[in-house]
Model the fold of this input.
Amino acid sequence: QVQPVESGGDLVQPGGSLRLSCLASGSLFRIYDMTWYRQAPGKQRELVATMSSVGTTNYADSVKGRFAISRDTAKNTVYLQMNSLKPEDTAVYFCHAKWRILQRDYDAWGQGTQVTVSS
Done:
């Protein structure tokens, strides 16, 4: 059973930085495509950043140049480094893992971690 667990959310001032972590259990972490999503109050969940199992990355336009996704396979962990934070980055951030085994797709969501950007 794969269960991503997020951590690192906090209250931060505009212009500040945070690093989120997502620990994804399971011996197959190296084949997971890992994605960070976020959901602000009253809004739909949106993709923030994704990193495939082979290291290909993609970012939402709203975070390009400010956020960076990375992974440490030895620690089964994916990170989201967030710099130059803005109030509109306030949201619950979720980690999502997706993988395929024998032509069958699987996925798992974490419970989320709250990021609040406010002075």
About this structure: The two ends are 40 Å apart (CA to CA). The CA atoms of residues 19 and 70 lie 11 Å apart. The chain has no helices and eleven strands. The chain has a mean pLDDT of 96.
